[in-house]
Here is the input.
Amino acid sequence: MIHLIFERAATGSLKHVLRKQKDKIIGFPIDFSVGPITNIHEKNGMKNYFTWLKSSYRIGWGYFKEDQTAYYQSLLELSEIEDGEQVTIWTCENAAEQIGLRISCYLLKNKEVELSFINTFYAMQDYMKHRDVQVDIGHTAGCSPEQLAHFYKHSTCPISEEMKSNYVQDGERLLSDKSIVRSWWQGEIVDDLETRDDPFILACATRLQNENRHVAFINATSVIGEVLGNSEQSFSDAWIEYRIRSLIHFNQLAYDGNLQSMRTYKIKVV
Here is the structure.
C-alpha cells in the first residue's frame, strides 16, 4: 500500500502509525490553498510557488528549501508508482487537502492503480458517533496516531472511475489556476480574493482590544490564535501573519515592535 498525505505534521503522524508496516508514505509538505499553484507539479511552477513564499512569509529560507526538496522528492516518488499498486489518498474537508487529492489523481491518471481515499473529517464523525463529545476536525493533522490507525482499518473508501475522472478534471484545472487563494465552500474548491480573511482578522483584533481595554496593543500571536481558533477555513499561522502585515501596510492596523517575527510585535485596529 502507498499512502499520499498532505501537511508535514500529518505525514509525521502517519509515518509513526505505520512504522512497523511495509506501507510506503509519500508526504507533501506544502499548503495548496494559498500561493500560486500554476504548474506546481513542474520545476517552473515549484520555483514560482517557493519564490512567493519567500517574499510573503517571515520564515527562514532554509525552512522553505527543506520543504521544496521534500516536495520535489514526493513528486518523484509519485511518478515512480507502478501499475498494479494500491494507493490511498488521505484528505479532509479543507481546500489544501482537497486540492492535494485532485492533483494527485491527475498525476496518476495514466497509471493502472487501485485508488482509495480516507476523509478524516467524516472518519472522525464516525469514530465519535457513540461518544458524548462531537469533534469536528479541520485537517488531518488534528488527528491522533490512534485515530489515524483506526481510520486506516475502518474508513478507507474506493475511488470509482467516475470519481477519478472528476478529480482528474479538477486537478488539471487547478494546475492552470491563476489565483492566490482557494477556499473549500459547500463541497467545491473556489478561487477567492487574497483579502478573503482580512475582515475576520480585523473583527478578531477588535474583539480582543475590547476585552483588553487596559492595553494599547495586542500581541500579534494572540490575534493569530483567535483567528485560527474561530475561522471556518483552515489555514496556517504564517498565512494569517502575512495578512496582518498587509493590513498594516494599508493602514488598517497599527503596530508596535519589530515586524521580522510574529512574536516580536503588537497590533491594534486603526
